[in-house]
Design a protein that fits this description.
Blueprint: H1 2-12, H2 16-25, H3 40-49, E1 55-59, H4 64-68, E2 75-79, E3 88-92, E4 95-99, H5 101-106, E5 110-116, H6 121-132, E6 138-139, E7 149-150, H7 152-159, H8 182-190, E8 195-200
Parallel strand pairs: 6-7
Antiparallel strand pairs: 1-2, 1-5, 2-3, 3-4, 5-8
């Protein structure tokens, strides 16, 4: 049954409908008319602790995409700067983009900041430089590991070019290929202990 499901997903990902749905519809479907939960106070707490080279994860429990992606988080990105208009590097339906940490928080109910334990100052700079080198990449709707196109959590994975995070590549979605999910990034901290939890908007902080 798993093989049939995987084959179906792989076939579906080649269709025009699939690309249209993921790029033009899915990012905008939200089952609430109210605001997300992150407050200005929470944002300031997180921003005070945020450093370039950190990994940020978020989720909005009312978005359709959250219901379709298994696990605690639905989006992953990298902090590449502070006190700038280009603080967070991310991959979305708009391809590679640079936004502020406030932009990252305002569309979420839950945000965490992780920091790689094996990320010394030298490697952190290389990690950021590698992340910035992907600025011309398009979004990867087929979720194939590689640097020609990237999806959100893969940006984190490929920027960590020495794989010091030792990310979990479990196929949580069931597409039949190795896949690094936002929750796979979270497991770097929660299960493997290869990252520190610097800040959790739910209050479970270091």
């Amino acid at each position: 049954m798993k093989k049939i499901k995987a084959k179906f997903f792989l076939w579906l990902m080649e269709t025009r409908f699939y690309i249209y749905f993921l790029s033009k519809i899915l990012p905008f479907v939200r089952f609430s008319f109210w605001y997300t939960a992150i407050s200005g106070k929470q944002y300031r707490q997180g921003y005070e602790l945020l450093k370039p080279g950190d990994i940020v994860l978020n989720t909005d429990k009312h978005k359709l995409v959250t219901l379709l992606i298994p696990g605690e988080f639905s989006h992953a990105a990298v902090c590449v700067a502070k006190n700038s208009d280009e603080e967070i590097a991310e991959m979305t339906n708009k391809d590679y983009g640079l936004i502020t940490f406030m932009d990252f928080c305002k569309e979420a109910d839950h945000v965490v900041i992780l920091r790689g334990k094996a990320f010394d100052a030298e490697y952190t700079k290389k990690f950021i430089d590698k992340c910035l080198s992907f600025k011309d990449c398009k979004y990867d709707y087929q979720f194939n590991l590689g640097v020609k196109t990237l999806y959100c959590s893969e940006l984190v994975y490929q920027s960590d070019f020495e794989h010091r995070l030792k990310c979990n590549l479990d196929d949580l979605v069931g597409i039949g290929i190795p896949y690094i999910s936002p929750t796979g990034i979270w497991k770097v901290y929660s299960e493997d202990g290869n990252a520190d939890l610097i800040w959790d908007s739910n209050g479970k902080n270091k």
